[in-house]
């Protein structure tokens, strides 16, 4: 009987403790907090739990535990929202880039179908001509007859990818639009810029690329010769577009000892002007001896002392203005017969 009484008293005390009640203030705010929490309204729930924690006759430890749980939920929500925002931002940027690339490719395709593209820089417009790639024989070919020099041999097969090349030599107007000055001796907006070194051309191209967002360069020697020969439309002429130099070139016999405005003579098969005569044109390559082996998109030797020059000029005779004739000079040299034209590979 005594043991039974002790057990009864113990159970009574336990039940009394478990049935402990809290103040109405605490109970009300905890109930509101739990309701908001269950609805995922964690900021609102946290506010109620914080009020419950301040109530007299409550359980501040339990209220704090609930607050901590709200903080964890809010942090998880913020992280999820940030991840979603970032994913949406990345998706939007990817879509923008894809649309821009598609538009760029459409413009390229349209320009290719036309065969040319006009580009305007600081009010000066110039034309780039599309050159469809192909395979050709570079160097001393049969139409050159006995005029070839040793540097043009041996002839060899070269395969080139598509590219673009300037319709004309870079004019003084375009040079001044990009560089803000004009170094030429024979002044005239539509005359080719001259008295520029290979190094000067690189500085011009860097500035032009910054202005246009495109990637211009000097043509490689192979690109230059393929274009001068007329690309895949070639009629295999000795000069750029004709076997009669007077049709297509300003050279020693007809120049009057000066340059002339571009497009003053007939174009070649690709619609390119002055690739024979007017001014020598710098190419990207270092000068080096030819090899008889076939090549694809050659860029010349990896080093050297002179950069390639092509096309002859107003100050040279007909033999020097042939499409296969090669020359070179030190990259820093400037002369009244040195100019260039642009290439563009997309």
In DSSP terms, counting alpha (H) and pi (I) runs of 4 or more, how many helices? Answer: 8
Low-confidence stretches: 1-19
Counting DSSP E segments of at least 2 residues, the number of strands comes to 12
Give the CATH topology of the largest domain: paralog of FGE (formylglycine-generating enzyme)
Average pLDDT over all residues: 92
Shape: rod-shaped
Structural Rg: 40 Å
Alpha-carbon distance between the termini?
103 Å
CATH class of the largest domain: Alpha Beta
Largest sheet: 5 strands, antiparallel
Main structural class: alpha+beta
Report a brief summary of the structure.
This protein is α+β, with helices and mostly antiparallel strands.
Written overview of the protein:
Mean pLDDT is 92; it is low at 1-19. The chain has helices at 2-18, 24-38, 42-54, 60-114, 172-179, 198-212, 221-228, 245-248, and strands at 116-121, 124-131, 134-138, 156-160, 163-166, 216-217, 280-286, 295-296, 307-310, 326-329, 338-339, 343-344. Helix 2 packs antiparallel against helix 3 (42-54) and helix 3 runs antiparallel to helix 4. The strands form three sheets. It has a five-stranded antiparallel beta sheet. The protein has a four-stranded mixed beta sheet with strand order 10-9-7-11, covered by helices on one side. With 346 residues, it is of the alpha+beta class. The chain starts with a helix and ends with a strand. It has two domains: 22-111, Methane Monooxygenase Hydroxylase, Chain G, domain 1 (Up-down Bundle), CATH 1.20.58; 115-344, paralog of FGE (formylglycine-generating enzyme).
């Amino acid at each position: 009987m005594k043991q039974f009484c002790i057990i009864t008293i113990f159970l009574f005390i336990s039940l009394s403790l478990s049935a402990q009640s809290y103040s109405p203030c605490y109970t009300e705010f905890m109930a509101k907090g739990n309701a908001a929490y269950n609805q995922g309204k964690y900021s609102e729930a946290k506010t109620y739990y914080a009020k419950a924690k301040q109530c007299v006759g409550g359980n501040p430890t339990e209220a704090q535990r609930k607050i901590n749980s709200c903080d964890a939920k809010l942090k998880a929500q913020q992280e999820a929202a940030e991840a979603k925002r970032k994913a949406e931002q990345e998706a939007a940027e990817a879509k923008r880039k894809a649309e821009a690339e598609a538009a760029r490719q459409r413009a390229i395709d349209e320009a290719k179908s036309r065969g040319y593209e006009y580009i305007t820089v600081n009010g000066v417009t110039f034309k780039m001509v599309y050159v469809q790639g192909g395979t050709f024989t570079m160097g001393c070919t049969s139409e050159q007859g006995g005029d070839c020099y040793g540097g043009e041999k041996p002839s060899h097969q070269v395969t080139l990818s598509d590219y673009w090349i300037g319709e004309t030599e870079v004019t003084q107007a375009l040079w001044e639009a990009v560089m803000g000055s004009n170094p030429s001796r024979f002044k005239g907006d539509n005359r080719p810029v001259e008295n520029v070194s290979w190094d000067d051309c690189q500085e011009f191209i860097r500035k032009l690329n910054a202005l246009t967002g495109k990637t211009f360069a000097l043509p490689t020697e192979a690109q230059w010769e393929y274009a001068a020969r007329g690309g895949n439309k070639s009629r295999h002429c000795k000069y750029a577009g004709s076997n009669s130099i007077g049709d297509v070139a300003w050279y020693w016999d007809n120049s009057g000892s000066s340059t002339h405005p571009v497009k003053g003579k007939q174009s070649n098969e690709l619609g390119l002007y002055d690739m024979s005569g007017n001014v020598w044109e710098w190419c990207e390559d270092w000068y080096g001896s030819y090899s008889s082996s076939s090549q694809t998109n050659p860029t010349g030797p990896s080093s050297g002392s002179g950069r390639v020059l092509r096309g002859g000029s107003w100050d040279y005779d007909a033999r020097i203005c042939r499409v296969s004739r090669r020359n070179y000079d030190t990259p820093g040299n400037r002369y009244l017969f040195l100019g260039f034209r642009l290439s563009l590979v997309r």
